[in-house]
Each structure stands twice: as C-alpha cells, then as structure tokens.
Write a structure and sequence with these properties.
By secondary structure, the chain is an alpha+beta fold. It contains seven helices and 33 strands. It is globular, with a radius of gyration of 30 Å.
C-alpha cells in the first residue's frame, strides 16, 4: 500500500510539473519608436534598432506635372482620389501646380496627406543676369522668341522633375490640412539626377496616436518617394513605412525570451497575418504572400539577417496561428495594438517532415497558418498534422571546417588551378559543382555557400500524419530554364529577350545564391542555328 501511494504521489508530481511548464503565458509589449536616422535613404551601418527598420511600405502613385496624350493608369489611383475628395474639408494654398494627394490607413482610421513643392530659388548668377537685363536686350529677346515661334516645332524636351519638399498630414483627422504642422523634407544633397528628370524626397519621422480597434497606439512613420519626368507624362511614387515596433519579455518553460513585433505592412496594427495572393504570380508561377506582420523571438543584432523572408532568418517568424520556440509549438494571440501577446503550448498532434538536404530552413503554409521549420538530412522536422505546402526555403551548403593541414594543402592546390577554374563555364559550375548533389568546393573561412528559393503555385501539398514521417521535396538538383519573350526595342523593331531561371527538384525558383560568400559569375549562353553555326553569344544579368 505504501509503495502504491508513493508511486501515485510521484506520478502526480510529474503531471504537476508538466502542467506547470505547459501553461499559457502573457507578455506586455511596449511601443518603441525608431531613432530618426537623419539619412534620406535609410540607415547607414548597423544602428541598435536596425533589425526593426525593414518593412513593406504602404505605396501611393500619381500622375504629376505636364500630362500628354500617353497616360499611365497606376493601380489604386482612382480609388485614392475618390477617398481624398470624400474626406477633405479644407486645404491650404499649395505652392506647386501639381500637388500629390493621398490617403493612408493607419490602425482603423484614414489620414489625408498632400506633398507640395516650394519654388526653387534662382541661383546667384541668374539673379545677377536678371538685374543687368536692359530694355534693348529685352526687345532683342522678344524678337528672338518670335523668330523661334515661327520655326518648325522641336522635339519635346524632358521636363524637370518636381522636387516635393513639404508634407501636409492630417494627424488630427478633422479633414482640415491647414491646422497641422507642415513637415519639411530632409536635406538631400544631389537628389536630382538625369539632368533634373528624376528626383528623390524624404521626410523626418512623424509621431502621432492611432487607433487599433479601440486601443490608442503611440505610433511613428516615415515617408519618402521619387518623381520621374517624361516628355509625355510625369509620375510620382511615395512610400509610408512604419517607424515604431513592440518589444517585451516572456518566460516559457522557465526560460526568458525577448519578443518583438514589427508592423511589417506599415498599417498601424500589429496582428496582421500573412496570406497568399491568389491573383499574383511571379516568374515561373512563383507564389507571393500578402504581407502581414513579423514576430521576432530573441532577435540578435550581431547575427546576419534577411528581413523579408523568415526562412533566411534565425529569429523572424510571420505572425500566424502557431510559432515554434525551442522545439515546442505555441498557439499565438496578439492584440491589434500589439500591446499584449499570449503564447499557449499547442495540443495539436505532431508528425515529421524529412528532406534529403542538410542545414535547411523553410516556411510552409496550410490550414493551420504559416510555419517556419528547420531540419537536416538525418534530422526530420516536427510539424503539426495537416496539409502543408512549401512557400520558401534556404539551404546552407557550406562544408564543415577542415583540419588546418588539410585546408593548407587544399589552398595550394586551389592556387595552382585558379586560372583554369576562372575560365570554367559559370552556369555549369554553379549548377553542377555546387547545387547538383556533387561534392562542393571547400568554403573559405567565414564564407557561406547558400541557395534560397520560392515555391510555385503548382507545388503539391504534403499530408502530415501524427507520429509518422513524410518527405517534403525541394532543393537540388537545379536546372537552368530559359524563356524567350517578344519585345519592341528602342527603335520600335521586334526583338527577342531571354530570361533564365534556376529551377529546383519541385519546380521551385531560385531567388538567391551565394558561393563562398559571393555571387557566382554571370551565366553565359550561346545560340546556334540548326547547322551548329554560332548566331549569338552573351551572358545573363542578375535581377
């Protein structure tokens, strides 16, 4: 009886311990505003908050300046114009003949804004010339103008781009743009290029309070953009980017973690979940996500990071239903204001996914949301049961460090064959030696060999069953796929354009490749006629 009681007490103790470690945890996250970098084109170097600066901006487009017969209809322009007219009550007298009007959505509210341009001040020599101008000179100029008017019309010259340098932003949301502080553009030396036909502009960060489903949020954003002037038309684009994020601490299983949420889609909310864009396809049918927000677990400013794809980051995750932290899945709940996050150990049954490649990290998606997983060829990844598709991945092909002696001998051999290697075909070297399954060349110390890719819409879902392992195909070998397009060249003649992609074993498209820390040489091509005569040679450009 005593033994039975002792066993029961021990079992209860174990269950109690498990229950204690499996409880839900809530963390309060504070708002953090980014430090204004003072740089019109972003941060130079790694500041303490550089990890939180990368976002997907709200974008606005408009036709500005003289407009000819050839108009371009940018997506959303009509809706933007109608929304502005519906909200605005009062506007100031603008300096520019072509102010740029728009409506931004932050939180659950809409905000009017207008970009204006003050007239450029005449240069000192221009002032002097005007002052010295006499009446006879003015008469001579008039005759010259009349002579020019009678001459045949010249080809239209490219106008100068508007230099937007003032931002009216209706921060108090009363529809009146005359009672808010005008934001002056940052000093931007050399912002006008191409003879004045292109210009950039950037404004200091703007602080305001937005509403996120009833919760006031202290928020900040920055705005920058460009103007491109053409003989037939001129157009401008502006981007509004989040300049505030949430940060706090949470304890899971007795371990403290730093948690941060980035308003990645720059809309004033912190709970937006990623979705697949059903109406947008990239090259080769690659799928693209409608961006939501980012959840960072233990972000490390010293670590290499790729901010736009969690598959290439050690600590970035899409805000979704689940997140994997230290090998355990948690159900995720985030308030719209981002001030609280709940992480509860998930009870979903787990299966496993295998892949023959070592050192991979991937993002998969399905009915349970978007997940980041990682594994090795001998170490399957634990995944909640369900149907899953591949979104993107990154595979580290860097060989392990060699012993000092072996590395030294290999370096000598490499030096002697360097010239031969340099003349090898770049495409064959990249695909065959590095990505085709053969032994890769040893990497130089601290230089990685990595390949990243995105899946196509045709990728077949993989069914994960509890307590079972299933293979998810992706990765090498890669093969080059060349596509031709009929285009019109600069002279209006029909021409053919070639595009090359590296396609993986499951029809995924390579998006990036680094070999020993550097990008491979440009792939070369040769076109021959049916008799084998060389018609054209060249190389493909990245991008």
């Amino acid at each position: 009886m005593k033994k039975y009681l002792a066993a029961s007490v021990a079992a209860c103790g174990i269950l109690a311990a498990l229950a204690a470690t499996a409880r839900a945890e809530t963390a309060t996250l504070e708002i953090k505003r980014l430090s204004d970098s003072g740089s019109p084109f972003g941060v130079v170097g790694r500041t303490t908050d550089y990890l939180y600066r990368y976002t997907s901006s709200q974008s606005f487009n408009a036709m500005v300046g003289p407009v000819g017969k050839d108009r371009i209809a940018f997506g959303g322009m009509k809706e933007q114009d109608e929304a502005f007219k519906k909200i605005v009550n009062k506007e100031p007298k603008y300096e520019s003949e072509y102010p740029f009007r728009g409506v931004a959505k932050l939180g659950t509210q809409q905000y009017l804004f207008v970009l204006d341009a003050t007239p450029e001040k005449p240069k000192a020599d221009e002032k002097k010339a005007a002052a010295e101008k006499t009446k006879p000179a003015a008469d001579a100029e008039k005759k010259e103008a009349e002579k020019s008017a009678a001459a045949p019309a010249k080809k239209a010259e490219t106008p100068k781009a508007i230099r937007y340098d003032r931002l009216y932003f209706d921060a108090n949301r009363n529809g009146d743009l005359t009672d808010d502080k005008v934001v002056e553009a940052q000093a931007m030396p050399g912002i006008v290029i191409s003879g004045g036909s292109y210009s950039n502009f950037s404004f200091p960060q703007v602080d305001l309070t937005v509403d996120a489903d009833g919760t006031p949020v202290e928020y900040s954003f920055s705005m920058r953009g460009y103007v491109s002037a053409q003989p037939q038309y001129s157009y401008a684009g502006a981007q509004l980017s989040a300049a505030a994020y949430r940060e706090g601490e949470i304890t899971l299983d007795g371990k403290s973690h730093r948690v941060a949420i980035i308003d990645f889609n720059s809309n004033g909310r912190f709970d937006d979940r990623i979705e697949i864009m059903s109406n947008v396809r990239g090259s080769g049918g690659q799928v693209y996500p409608q961006q939501g927000d980012m959840l960072l677990i233990d972000p490390d400013p010293k670590s290499a990071d790729y901010p736009y794809d969690p598959a290439r980051s050690k600590f970035r995750n899409y805000v979704s239903n689940l997140v994997n932290i230290d090998g355990r899945y948690y159900d995720v709940k985030i308030t719209p204001a981002g001030d609280k996050i709940d992480l509860e150990p998930s009870t979903v049954p787990l299966g496993k996914i295998s892949n023959p490649n070592g050192g991979y990290s991937a993002v998969i998606y399905g009915d349970r949301g978007f997940l980041k997983i990682s594994g090795d060829k001998d170490q399957p990844a634990s995944v909640p049961a369900g149907e899953w598709k591949l979104l993107s991945y990154s595979i580290d092909l860097t060989p392990p460090p060699e012993p000092a002696k072996a590395a030294e001998e290999k370096a000598k051999t490499a030096d002697s064959g360097a010239k031969k290697t340099a003349t090898a075909n770049a495409l064959s070297a990249a695909v065959r030696n590095l990505l085709g399954g053969t032994t890769a060349t040893a990497a130089v110390a601290n230089r990685r060999t990595v390949v990243s890719a995105g899946a196509s819409a045709d990728y077949k879902s993989v069914r994960v069953v509890a307590d079972e392992t299933v293979e998810m195909p992706f990765g090498p070998p890669f093969k080059p796929v060349v596509t031709s397009y009929n285009i019109m060249d600069e002279k209006g003649k029909q021409a053919t354009q070639l595009s090359m992609s590296l396609v993986g074993s499951a029809s995924e498209n390579c998006t990036d490749m680094m070999v020993n820390g550097a990008r491979p040489a440009k792939p070369e091509f040769t076109i021959t006629d049916p008799d084998g005569k060389v018609v054209e040679t060249g190389s493909f450009e990245y991008g």
